[in-house]
């Protein structure tokens, strides 16, 4: 087992490795102290009077200063190992510092939020089964933590069963309040004193910490399993009453018969085509609710390798046709390996996606396992109705044909490869359960006037979208869209192709972005669907990072330290070619720290890439 002094300071959410933390200026203890103690007004004054480069230099210096918390944590870890040597023995267990506190971590290849949630829930259910207790699973308000309920009269027996389970495999426990918040400090479940301290809690959360073999990822209480103790109705005694609200029923018959239902009903993170195992529940929780998304959701990516010699020859043969320098800038086609990490983010944080379609121009990434079930490579030749329009290097043209993909579901998400999921998301973040799509307007406005050759491509397309909406519905649109996954309906795209045939064919015919392009997928769909009652505006926690920004490294460090965005985009349209190599190092380090677990779509390329990538898949 690894010595505790070598383990990193992680948190209950995914965290970077020790070396990444030291490179992360926003995660240093001095920066955290500065943000806690310095008023926001003074922090803004400092930002106004200093350059980004100066602030970055100071933060890097802070990050190198030692913290007293880490040596203390290492001493506590050594004491823990000495006191419980048998509990932490084995190749699948380590001691890691979580917020400076040593925790036993179960090491599993391919760990993810869903697998951690499922493992914690299965361990709790197994403990209840072994004790012969009558329990039932509850549809709680969290998708990342399961809920198991028992009658309050079984509390003592349940606590003994859980203590045994945490003693066999080192687990932790904390109390949960009525707002579903778990206390940040978990206590060792393998100590009897912990259970005495929490003996009267109405809701407990039991957690086994899980981590990846490389020590960069630790998943904790957010993915634990809650145990609720339901009390008997004082008036009749015939009902059990919940200690807090849930999604379906706050009371059940005391003598109700248990039923079996798939665990997929209890988390919206469940895979679409692989139902989770059956669990014990009550009739009140055994059927889908009206808030559940029950239709399949596919994912479509568009991708290009701008270094491919064959692709470069095809592009050179069409050179000189771009109306604006940004439309043919090398940064628009550069391959920074973002697709690898975007797919990792998808498998980690949206395992409910049914199939993935990768739309390319006869290209396949060298690291991609194209034979994995659920993944299909789609050539431009398969989706363009008019093959004479190929080759094309215009993303607007390619996007206009996505609804032609054979087998694509009615509801799907469209990703650019520079868009990433930053934390667990569920289908309801992008779709209403009745099938309506959500879209995420930006605060950036479409410029006024008609499109001109001076407009950047996104502005020209926005103006053309505005003209179509005004001519069709008599309203004026003003806002661009955020660079997020776009929630789309295949039938809406088909309808738009039929309703605007001239504009659709013209966009598809432009080999480079044109002043006459319409952005059918990334903007027009949302406004057209909204006007026809099939889409609604919504909000998503989102970050947009311009790769060419001089403070890119600092902004990435902030995002890595906080990990509070559901979606983020690393976009680049203006970088000069001489800047790309330096940017590549910064971006790759960030993405590897944020998404350290290889996804199911990757070949084992560790020997060729020189990176320590475990071959195991989820």
Written description of the protein model:
By secondary structure, the protein is of the alpha/beta class. It is 33% helix and 19% strand. It contains 20 helices and 27 strands. Strands 4, 5, 6, 7, 8, 11, 12 and 13 form an 8-stranded mixed β-sheet that branches. α6 (113-131) packs across α7 (155-168) and α18 runs parallel beside α19. The longest helix has 19 residues, at 113-131. Mean pLDDT is 87; it is low at 1-22 and 605-618.
Q: For the residues shown, what is the average pLDDT?
A: 87
Helical segment count? 20
Helix % is 25-40%
Radius of gyration: 26 Å
Beta-strand content bin: 15-25%
Largest sheet: 8 strands, mixed
The global form is globular
Query: What gap, in angstroms, lies between the N and C termini?
Result: 23 Å
Structural class: alpha/beta
Q: Got a strand count?
A: 27
In terms of per-residue confidence, which ranges show pLDDT below 50 for 5 or more consecutive residues? 1-22, 605-618
In quaternary terms, these chains amount to single chain
Secondary-structure blueprint of this entry?
Elements: E1 9-10, H1 18-23, H2 29-37, H3 40-49, H4 52-63, H5 69-83, E2 93-98, E3 101-107, H6 113-131, E4 135-137, E5 146-151, H7 155-168, E6 172-175, E7 187-188, H8 192-197, E8 203-207, E9 209-211, E10 218-219, E11 225-232, E12 239-241, E13 251-253, E14 259-262, E15 278-281, E16 297-302, H9 309-317, H10 330-333, H11 338-349, E17 356-360, E18 375-379, H12 380-383, H13 395-399, E19 411-416, E20 419-421, E21 437-439, E22 441-445, H14 457-473, E23 479-481, E24 486-489, H15 490-499, H16 501-509, H17 520-531, E25 535-537, E26 542-546, H18 552-562, E27 567-571, H19 580-594, H20 606-609
Parallel strand pairs: 1-2, 3-9, 5-11, 16-17, 16-19, 17-18, 21-25, 26-27
Antiparallel strand pairs: 2-3, 4-5, 6-7, 6-8, 8-11, 9-10, 11-12, 12-13, 14-15, 19-24, 20-27, 22-23
């Amino acid at each position: 087992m690894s010595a505790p002094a070598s383990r990193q300071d992680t948190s209950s959410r995914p965290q970077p490795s020790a070396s990444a933390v030291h490179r992360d200026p926003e995660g240093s203890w001095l920066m955290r102290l500065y943000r806690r103690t310095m008023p926001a007004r003074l922090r803004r004054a400092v930002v106004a009077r200093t350059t980004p480069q100066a602030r970055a230099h100071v933060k890097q210096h802070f990050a190198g200063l030692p913290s007293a918390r880490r040596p203390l944590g290492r001493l506590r870890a050594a004491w823990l190992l000495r006191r419980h040597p048998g509990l932490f023995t084995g190749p699948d267990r380590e001691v890691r510092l979580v917020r400076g506190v040593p925790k036993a971590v179960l090491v599993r290849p391919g760990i993810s939020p869903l697998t951690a949630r499922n493992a914690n829930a299965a361990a709790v259910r197994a403990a209840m089964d072994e004790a012969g207790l009558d329990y039932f699973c509850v549809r709680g308000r969290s998708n990342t933590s399961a809920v198991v309920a028992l009658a309050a009269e079984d509390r003592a027996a349940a606590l003994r069963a859980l203590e045994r389970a945490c003693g066999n495999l080192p687990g932790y426990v904390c109390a949960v309040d009525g707002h579903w918040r778990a206390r940040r400090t978990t206590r060792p479940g393998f100590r009897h004193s912990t259970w005495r301290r929490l003996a009267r809690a109405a809701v407990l959360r039991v957690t086994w910490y899980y981590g990846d073999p490389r020590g960069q990822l630790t998943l904790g209480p957010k993915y634990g399993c809650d145990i609720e103790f339901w009390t008997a109705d004082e008036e009749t005694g015939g009902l059990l009453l919940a200690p807090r609200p849930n999604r379906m029923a706050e009371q059940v018959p005391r003598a109700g018969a248990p039923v079996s239902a798939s665990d997929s009903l209890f988390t919206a993170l469940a895979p679409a085509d692989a139902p989770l195992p059956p669990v014990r529940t009550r009739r009140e929780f055994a059927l889908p609710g009206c808030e559940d998304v029950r239709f399949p959701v596919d994912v479509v990516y568009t991708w290009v390798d701008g270094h491919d010699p064959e692709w470069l020859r095809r592009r050179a043969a069409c050179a000189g046709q771009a109306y604006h320098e940004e439309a043919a800038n090398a940064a628009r086609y550069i391959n920074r390996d973002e697709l690898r990490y975007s797919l990792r983010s998808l498998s980690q944080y949206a395992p409910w996606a049914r199939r993935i379609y990768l739309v390319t121009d006869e290209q396949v990434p060298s690291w991609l396992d194209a034979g994995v079930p659920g993944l299909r490579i789609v050539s431009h030749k398969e989706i363009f109705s008019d093959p004479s329009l190929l080759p094309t290097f215009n993303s607007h043209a390619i996007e206009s044909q996505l609804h032609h993909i054979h087998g694509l579901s009615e509801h799907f998400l469209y990703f650019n490869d520079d868009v990433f999921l930053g934390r667990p998301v569920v289908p309801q973040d992008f779709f209403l359960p009745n099938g309506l799509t959500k879209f995420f307007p930006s605060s950036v406005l479409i410029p006024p006037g008609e499109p001109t050759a001076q407009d950047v491509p996104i502005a020209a397309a926005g103006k053309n979208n505005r003209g179509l909406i005004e001519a069709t519905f008599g309203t004026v649109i003003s806002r661009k869209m955020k660079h997020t996954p776009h929630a789309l309906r295949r039938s809406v795209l088909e309808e738009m192709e039929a309703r605007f045939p001239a504009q659709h064919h013209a966009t598809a015919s432009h080999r480079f972005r044109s002043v006459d392009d319409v952005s059918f997928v990334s903007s027009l769909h949302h406004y057209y669907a909204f006007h026809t009652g099939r889409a609604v505006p919504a909000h998503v926690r989102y970050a947009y990072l311009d790769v060419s920004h001089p403070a890119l490294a600092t902004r990435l460090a902030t995002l890595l330290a906080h990990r509070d965005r559901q979606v983020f985009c690393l976009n680049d349209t203006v970088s000069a070619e001489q800047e790309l190599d330096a940017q590549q190092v910064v971006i790759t380090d960030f993405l590897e720290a944020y998404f350290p677990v290889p996804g199911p779509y990757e070949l084992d390329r560790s020997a060729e890439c020189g990176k320590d990538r475990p071959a195991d898949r989820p």
